[in-house]
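FIELD: query
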Amino acid sequence: MKTQEESRRAPGFLRASSFPPAICRRESYNSPLAPAARAGMRFPMKNGLAILAAAAAIVILAGCKKGAAPPAPAGPLPVNVVVAEEKEVPEWDEYTGRTEAVEAVDIRARVTGYLTEIHFKAGAIVKKGDQLFTIDPRPYKADLDKAAAEVERTTAQAAFAEDEFNRAKELRAKNTISASDLDNKGATFRQADAAKKSADAARAAAALNLEFTDIRSPIDGRVSNERITVGNLVSAGSGAESILTSVVSVDPIYVYVDVDENALLRYIKLTTEGKRKSAREERTPLYCGLANEPGFPHEGYIDFVDNKVDPNTGTMRVRGVFKTWDSLVTPGFFMRVRVAATPPGPAVLLPDEVILRDQSTKFAWVAKDDGTAERRTVQTGSYLDGRRVVRSGVKGGEKVISTRLQILQQGMKVQVVPADAPKKDAAAPPPAK
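FIELD: result
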C-alpha cells in the first residue's frame, strides 16, 4: 500500500498547488477549479491539462475585458512628389537596327599563281593602295618580256611594209608597176600594222597580269584575316575559293532600320497635312546609340527609303548615314535609333520611376490639392533627357507622388514633405508604454 505522500507524488496526478497562481487568485475564486483547489483534490494528468488550458483562456479573456486603450487614428501619409514639367518637345519614334559598311570588298586573286607574301596584319586598318598579297610574279614577268619582243618584231615589219607601200605608190605614179602590185603592197602594210597593234595589246595584257600579282586594297577600311597562307596556289575567278580576305569601310557607316506599316501611314498623313517633310524630299535627322550608351548621342540623317513595303514583314527598309565616332564600330552592331515623329509640341515630362504598370495599363499617383492621392491612367511616349514623355493623364504643374507607391490607395490622405525630410510611417500604431 502506498502512503498518502507517495500517492501525492504519483506521476498521474496533479495537486492544486501545481496550478498557476492566477487560478488560485481571488478573481478566479468562482472558476470551475476553485472548489477542487480549495479541497486539495488530485486530478488525472490528461484531464488536468485540459482544465489548465480552459483556465488560462478564462484568465486571458478576463484580462481582455479590462482592455487596452484603442490605437490613435492614423494621420496623413508623408510622401515626396515631383512636379510634372510641361515643355515643347518633339515626339520620337524609336527603332532597332544594324550597322552595315558603306563599302565592302572581297579581295580576290585576278591571276593564278603561288602566294609568296602577305603584307598586312589581320584586323588592321588599311588605306587605299596598301599592299596586301604578292603572287609569284616571275611567270608573268616572262610573259611581259615575250610580249615586248613581239611588239618590236611587228613594229619592224610594219615599218618595212610601210616603206614598200610608199615606193610602190611612186612607181605606180610613173606607171612602172601595175595597179595589182600596188594593191598587194598596201595589203601587206595594213597586215603588218594590225599585227603591231595586236602585239601592243598583248604586251598591255601581260603588263596587267604582272601588276595583278601585287594585290592591293581598293578602299580605306579594316581588313579581315587571310583566308589562305603563303605557298598555296591561288586561282583567279568569282567563286568563294578565290577570296583571299575582305575589307570594309569604317567611316561613314550605314544603319538599316525596318519601319512598321502603322508608323509609315502616320508619317504619310503628317506629310499630306504639311506638318512633316518626307525623308525622300529633304535630309531628315536621325539619332542613334549603341546598346551600352545612354540615350541617342550620335546624329546622322536618312539618305535612303526603299520603294516598297515587304509583304512578309509589313515593314519598309530605311537607311541612315552616320559619321563614325569610333573606328571599332564595325558592321553588324545592334543600334538603337530614333527619329522625330511629330513637330515639337507641348508635352509633360516625368521620371520613369513614378510611372507604374498594372497588367496592360500604366498609371501614376497624383497628390491633389485636397490632400488625397488619386490614381491616374497615363499614356506614355518616348524617353527624352532622362525623363518619360506623358501624352495624357497628367497635366503640367501637378504633383506626382514619387515615394511609398506600393502602399498608396485611392483617396488616401497624404502629406507632401520635402525630399530630405525624415519620413514616419503614419499607419504604424504608437509604441506601447
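FIELD: remark
The longest helix spans residues 138-173.
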